[in-house]
Amino acid sequence: MKNFVKYTLVSAAVAATFGVAAGTLTSTALQVSKQGAASAAATATQAASFTHTVAAGYAINDLVKFTVTSGAVASSFTWPSTIEYAAGSGGASMTLTLLSGTAGSNEGSYRVTNVTASTGQTTIGAVSDPISVTLKTNALAVDASVSVASTLSNGSTPIDPTTAVTIAEAKDQFGDLTVSQKFAGTIDVAQGRKAFVSSTSLPLVFKASEVASLVAPATVTSTVVKVNADLGELTTAAVSVSGGSPTKAYDATNKVLTLTYNSAVTTDQTVTITPPTGSAAKVLVAGDFKLAGTVNYGTASAESIGSSIDAGEWTLNGAMVNVPYVPFGANVSRVFTVTNTGSLDADVTLTAIDESGVTYDVGTIAVAKANSVTSLSAAVFDALNGAVPGLNGKKLSLTFTINAENKDVTVYAMYNVGGADRATVPTSQYKN
Questions:
Q1: pTM for this entry
Q2: Do 145 and 66 form a contact (C-beta atoms < 8 A)?
Q3: H-helix or E-strand containing 198?
Q4: Is the CB of residue 294 less than 8 Å from the CB of residue 305?
Q5: Is the distance from CB of 366 to CB of 348 less than 8 angstroms?
Q6: How far apart are the first and last CA of the chain?
Q7: pLDDT of 177-200, one tens digit each?
Q8: 309-316 and 183-187 as β-strands: parallel, antiparallel, unpaired?
């Protein structure tokens, strides 16, 4: 009885005289795949653990309660019947004995049943043995933590204030696609835009990033990578991939090359486009490449791994001239000419963008004769009138691509509104 009274008085004196100290919980948190946890079987479990360091003098019959995040504890888990604390800076050790905590309960309540101390010693700094907790894997798509609250035997006066620690941390397993080398090529107008200046182009190199060594990783069933680009008349026969063996499909209408892998692609994938040559050669199209990806995992889950990722471009060593503003209407007339001082005739193709951002790929509209000035006025109107709905009343930005060297080409543009508003439009050739 003397022992009991002695340590109860010590505990109360520490709380009243020096203020309530704060114990600590420590854990090496499990790093759990958020996607893997969400798709895990209902019976899957993970073991986590933590330790408790007290910062007060405890006495027999003091109370300690551990609480794990609601819903995270597995039904098979039972709280240990006793927890031993090794002596710390205060010199005293102690034992907790379970009061309540049924199987599957997220709370375990304990009473101090033994304090081993010499005169003047306290339990300050005493450290528990590792306390293991069995968690439901499918509950770990969010973080799980444990908290502890300690009171005197009256159940209301705090000893160590409530404190908590994360014991399982949910992490994204999948990161965005990463590009280590972009497509790059210069299309040669001198070869009819059917070959690159250097006879080749740089390939695209990418991979799908993924966090390694996570607990309960999701099983990837497929990875779909879309390359958004206009391949013109090229087909998948011109596309080769090293580093993996995806199926290839090109949608010419939506201008999307789709690569479908039957697993994760965490190693470099090299995509090379080799245009056909000779009589099979095709006209190549200048433009940007963009990547988008989706990873499929589990039984029926999917996640985006990036969209509109810069994947390079093919440029043209010919002339691309933008006329930024051209009005169309019943009382509007326009004049367009192209001067070609080169020694070769050059095809002229046209694209237009309206005020809503809609792009119209009109195609070839004329031939700019060698060493000549060629009028494009009628050709532009005829082509746009057939391609752009409701042309009258629209204001367009026009881009002319002339299959000749840039130094040999000059585009002139002007418009006249009702004979009163006559304006020359500065083109991109004079932008700087």
A1: 0.70
A2: no
A3: none
A4: yes
A5: yes
A6: 96
A7: 999 999 999 998 778 788 999 878
A8: parallel
